[in-house]
Amino acid sequence: QLQFVESGGGLVQPGGSLRLSCKASSNIFNLVNMAWYRQAPGKQRELVASITTPYDTDYVDSVKGRFTISRDNVENILWLQMNSLKPEDTAVYYCNRPLQFFPWGQGTLVTVSS
């Protein structure tokens, strides 16, 4: 079982950047693929980016070239670098294992607005 604490969200203008972090509770983190998800108001949660334990990455088309997912298997941290942010990126962002979810954390709110 893993628990997650997400942080790094905030209010940013369009075109700005944010770096989200997700701290996992144990070294089980090193053994599992991980992903960032987001849920915008009134919409279903969607997978944004994923990373395997050998560090292969994948992204939803809407964030390719703007977001970068990475992980630190020593500190048990998942990162999401978000550049060139758009208003449609506004959402609560969560981290979790793809498909076989652990309990969800509280998420971190990203608001992109001028």
Biggest sheet: strand arrangement: 2-10-9-4-5-6
Radius of gyration: 13 Å
Percentage of residues in DSSP E strands = over 45%
Shape: globular
Number of helices: 0
Specify the helix fraction band: under 10%
Mean pLDDT, to the nearest integer, reads 96
Major sheet characteristics: 6 strands, mixed
Spatial gap, N to C terminus: 40 Å
The sequence of SSEs as H and E is: EEEEEEEEEE
Low-confidence stretches: none
Derived structural class: mainly beta
Describe the structure in your own words.
The protein has 114 residues and is mainly beta. It contains no helices and ten strands. The chain has strands spanning 4-7, 10-12, 18-24, 34-39, 46-51, 57-59, 67-72, 77-82, 91-96, 108-112. The strands form two sheets. Strands 2-10-9-4-5-6 form a six-stranded mixed beta sheet, with no helix packed on it. Strand 4 (34-39) and strand 5 form a beta hairpin. The chain starts with a strand and ends with a strand. The model has no long low-confidence stretch (mean pLDDT 96).
Topology:
Layout: E1 4-7, E2 10-12, E3 18-24, E4 34-39, E5 46-51, E6 57-59, E7 67-72, E8 77-82, E9 91-96, E10 108-112
Parallel strand pairs: 2-10
Antiparallel strand pairs: 1-3, 3-8, 4-5, 4-9, 5-6, 7-8, 9-10
